Amino acid sequence: MNSGASASLPSNAVPYIFEKFNMVDDSQSSLPTSLFLLGYVVGPSIWSPLSETVGRRPILLYTFIVFFFFTLACALAPGWSTLLFFRFVCGCMGAAPQTVVGGVYADIFEARSRGRVMAIYMAAASFGPILGPIISGFTSEYGWRWTFWVELMIAGFTLVGLLFVPETFGPVLLRRRAAMLSKMSGRHISAPSSSIDTDLTTIFLRPLYMLISEPIIAATSIYVGIVYALVFFYFQAYPVIFPEVYGFSIQMTSLALIPLGIGACSTSLVAIYWDLKYETALSKKKSWAFPFSPEVHRLPISCLGGVTIPVSLFWLAWTATPSIHWIVPTLSGLLFGFGYQTIFTSLLTYVTDAYKIYSASALASSVIIRSILGAALPVAAKPMYASLGVGWATSLVGFVSVACVPIPYVLLWKGGWIREKSKFCQMLVKDELGGSPTGGEESHEQQREEC
């Protein structure tokens, strides 16, 4: 939540920052957010592979400490250029939980409970970008630096809890155990080898390689990236739509984002309900139209969410007029929040289930794509609304979201076949069979089906 809130934090503080630093070029108004998201592009290529080598805890803890101090630096920034640099560093550090937490959950939870945990995690994490504009909307009038002071307080509270997070990555725990036993026994004891231990070049290129070579990673990354960019598009669109059409203040405009957060949080309830329904049918071996698989377990709610996103965009586009009460376009945020969160929860949990110990690199690929799109699309928001108007500018991004609707349906149909051809899935089968105490035919088939 810290990372997400920080990403959108300056959105309502920029006018006050411009006034303080005597900025007149309005085209730079989106840079505090865009450079943070550019850090999201750089960070995952470092933190995700490292978490699969040195472990999850050092990456999560040390990057958050740096994030904490550079948030402090933002609050004390003496000029526009230094503020932008500090924001970029915050983005690099804030990318770590976006990619590593999925790997942590893959380490410690089985597939049965992983989806429920991911649903709760994604509900909290996705509310962060909604929280950022609300914080800046209500604190900036007392001084734009208060925006970052409030974020620093939240980060400090979070850091206390993070200190107690243990290491979860299996290969690292085995290496530590082997080192301890070697010291106790006086003879060399080595941990079991795994294909996850590779040279540094392979480690750092893995997210890019997976993005290119794995159709599941490419398709889900593009979809999640577009949806993520639309969230930040909203942060630029609302300050245009509601002040111009309805005369809202900055504070009222930030409150108009609350339905997005409510819609996003409600997704966890739907995801948990579907998970329980799936598990009940699985335990009773109840016949379904499709065989039980990770696709059926994770993707159906994203099929629903994919439809609600374009509906919400067209709803907003053609109801935001002075003749229609402001509550009508505001409520479209409920559908959008539900839709974008179902895409996040469903697709990213599906990727985590499919790639397990490689999930940090797989999620890094998603973070890179969505951060590029998230940095680019908001820059185009104000020119689009200036030239096309509210209706057609919002409809244009609605048409883009329509083009993505088939992706979860195709994965639901052909996802199992794609995973059978996946190099990484076959590596997982080999690793898991190597660690199986029996190695029997039943175990082999079970591991292959799970992958």
TrEMBL record:
Keyword Transmembrane helix listed: yes
Record's keyword terms, sorted: Membrane, Transmembrane, Transmembrane helix
Annotated ranges, domain Major facilitator superfamily (MFS) profile: 1-416
InterPro entries hit by this protein: MFS, MFS_dom, MFS_trans_sf
Membrane topology: Multi-pass membrane protein
PROSITE patterns, per database record: MFS
Localization per record: Membrane
Transmembrane segments: 29-47, 59-78, 84-106, 118-136, 148-174, 216-235, 255-276, 296-318, 324-350, 357-380, 392-413
Domain of life: Eukaryota
UniProt cross-references to Pfam families, sorted A to Z: MFS_1 (PF07690)
Main location as per UniProt: membrane
Protein name: Major facilitator superfamily domain-containing protein
Phylogenetic placement of the source organism: Eukaryota, Fungi, Dikarya, Ascomycota, Pezizomycotina
